[in-house]
Amino acid sequence: MKLQNGHIIIPAAIFESILQEEEQIRYVYYPDRKHYLFAAKSKTYFEKLHETKWTTLKNKNPQGDKSLYVREVLIDFDLDETDRELVHEIKNSGIILIHFT
Question: Under 8 Å CB-to-CB from 87, ≥6 apart: which residues?
Fold first, then answer.
């Protein structure tokens, strides 16, 4: 995954296998750890564990990559907006964790 123009670019393979092709996701940002977590909206346990918001993914290209708008979080928490590869973890539960370091 990478950050590009204020968007997290989610490769088609992750969208298909982890997010199970769901266009809507739930997300939360923890500023003390600089962790951005998101999961498919159907993962109701994620909403119960965290105080989440939801949004819709956008199509990035014909190959099936998706984009997730995060510029608001970057600005609000004074995070680096430079386009780059992102350190991330995919949990067994289907939660994706991005490390904004």
Answer: 98, 99, 101
